[in-house]
């Protein structure tokens, strides 16, 4: 579409739903979800491109995360008064690698972070702002880049929520977006992720990177519709070697700061755009959804032969999900078809193949204050024979099917002030694993401390998690919330 046609189409869709002639819309609120299915608990899927034997020099990271985020402690009535209605926290985090990595610094994280958030409402309009001021000497570059999250300012939210009627919400500006049913595994959540933050020890909230977008939510008695239009492509904050080393296919070894990934990122306004949509409703206590996306691979999914730089090939995704109460717990299923449009036959070794992804999960409180959840995730490469035949000699070959099992265990102790958790990824096909142990203690209404780690294991150094083995780290965090 040309420069003007796409925004006009989007405005036309808005007009259709706002039209008094529309008979599908009902003047009522979005129907309530069954217990445990609230939208704000939706979780994410694995980073794109971390599969074994990817044929470009940057591993593909999974897409999508959820569930493990820690909220700032609630303030008591005796909380100090903060001017202008600001809320937030002051936090320090320090972590070190437990193995020698010749391509990275020994320290994995060493940042001080100040979060300031502000919210103001006027009848049918609400202003949201959340920004972080931070300093981390582990990353030598301190120039501000709001897209990459570099520098001493990271703008998380700056948006207006407008409610022109009871059947529509509009949110315009920088915002954190998520949908889908996976717990730290993403299929239909094609919104940007920050995989560096995830692997170095920041709070899990920071796995979700911000989007500069327009989100429209429409509610009706028949079905609800969410549309997200991003006028310029928002990629993942992907692994590029500055903080995390990875397996570099071009070099045939692990690399990091010695070979930082150079990428050609689509960045033309209203040309290199993205559209995501979701139809969803509850049917007899089952939450079902249909998804669509048109844009680009969120992490680099190919390489330009002329320049040797990584690229973001065109991508369309179509999927569905279901979630419901099952056997005193919550069960979920999700699937997605990834159409890699620039390699429809799967015979271009420089472009990532299309995929089919599937997820099934179950969560239940086994005893009081002890919860367990299990997920099975499948990544099936399409046109695998064509991919295999096109690989250059000596290039590690990815399996046709990549299987991953996840297990989350959470124990609450000491009046729920102490939380002990373990999240584990294990791939029997890649023979690698990733463990996230964490102990979080709420000292009082303001102070909390955390001790955790990121542990990687793998038989081969080119598999999904095996390539990160030298980035194994442990870290501590102290937070004061206000």
How does this model look, in words?
- By secondary structure, the chain is mainly beta.
- The chain has one domain (5-334, 347-353, 383-401).
- 6% of the residues lie in helices and 44% in strands.
- It contains three helices and 23 strands.
- The protein has an 18-stranded antiparallel beta barrel.
- It is globular, with a radius of gyration of 22 Å.
- The model is unreliable at 1-5 and 7-77 (pLDDT under 50).
Q: Report how far apart the termini are.
A: 47 Å
| Coarse morphology | globular
Low-confidence stretches: 1-5, 7-77
Tell me the number of strands: 23
The residue fraction in helices comes out at under 10%
Please identify the structural class as seen in this structure.
mainly beta
Measured by DSSP, the beta-strand proportion falls in: 35-45%
pLDDT averaged residue by residue: 87
Strand count, sense and closure of the main sheet?
A: 18 strands, antiparallel, barrel
Please state the CA-atom Rg, rounded to the nearest Å. Answer: 22 Å
- Spell out the helices and strands N to C: HEEEEEHEEEEEEEEEEEEEHEEEEE
Tally of contiguous helical segments: 3
């Amino acid at each position: 579409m040309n420069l003007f046609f796409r925004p006009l189409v989007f405005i036309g869709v808005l007009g259709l739903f706002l039209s008094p002639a529309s008979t599908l819309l009902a003047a009522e609120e979005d129907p309530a979800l069954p217990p445990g299915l609230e939208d704000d608990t939706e979780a994410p899927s694995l980073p794109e491109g971390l599969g074994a034997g990817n044929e470009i020099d940057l591993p593909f990271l999974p897409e999508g995360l959820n569930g493990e985020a820690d909220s700032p402690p609630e303030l008591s009535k005796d909380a100090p008064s903060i001017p202008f209605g600001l809320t937030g926290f002051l936090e320090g985090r320090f972590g070190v690698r437990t193995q020698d990595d010749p391509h990275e610094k020994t320290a994995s994280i060493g940042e001080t972070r100040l979060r300031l958030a502000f919210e103001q409402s006027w009848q049918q309009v609400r202003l949201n702002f959340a920004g972080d001021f931070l300093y981390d000497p582990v990353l030598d570059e301190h120039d501000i880049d709001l897209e990459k999250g570099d520098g001493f300012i990271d703008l998380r939210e700056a948006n207006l929520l407008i409610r022109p009627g009871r059947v529509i919400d509009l949110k315009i500006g920088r915002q954190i977006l998520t949908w889908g049913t996976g717990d730290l595994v993403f299929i239909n959540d094609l919104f940007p992720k920050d995989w560096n933050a995830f692997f170095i020890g920041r709070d899990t909230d920071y796995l979700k990177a911000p989007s500069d977008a327009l989100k429209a939510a429409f509610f009706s008695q028949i079905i609800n519709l969410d549309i997200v239009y991003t006028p310029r492509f928002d990629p993942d904050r992907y692994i590029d070697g500055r903080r995390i080393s990875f397996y570099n296919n071009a070099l045939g070894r692990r690399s990091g700061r010695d070979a930082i990934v150079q990428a050609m990122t689509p960045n033309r306004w209203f040309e290199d755009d993205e559209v995501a949509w979701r139809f969803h409703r509850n049917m007899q206590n089952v939450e079902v959804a249909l998804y669509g996306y048109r844009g680009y691979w969120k992490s680099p999914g190919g390489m330009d032969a002329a320049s040797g730089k990584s690229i973001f090939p065109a991508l369309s995704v179509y999927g569905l999900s279901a979630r419901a109460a099952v056997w005193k717990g919550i069960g979920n299923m999700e699937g997605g078809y990834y159409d890699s449009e620039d390699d429809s036959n799967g015979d271009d070794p420089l472009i990532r193949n299309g995929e089919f992804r599937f997820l099934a999960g179950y969560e239940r409180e086994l005893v009081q204050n002890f919860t367990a959840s299990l997920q099975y995730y499948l990544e099936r490469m399409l046109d695998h024979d064509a991919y295999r035949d096109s690989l250059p000699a000596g290039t590690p070959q990815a399996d046709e099917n990549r299987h991953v099992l996840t297990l989350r265990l959470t124990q609450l102790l000491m009046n729920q002030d102490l939380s002990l958790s373990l999240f584990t990824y294990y791939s029997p096909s890649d023979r690698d694993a990733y463990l996230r142990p964490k102990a979080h203690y709420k000292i009082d209404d303001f102070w909390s401390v955390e001790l955790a780690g990121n542990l990687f294991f793998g038989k081969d150094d080119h598999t999904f998690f095996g390539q990160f083995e030298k980035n194994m780290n442990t870290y501590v965090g102290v937070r004061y919330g206000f």
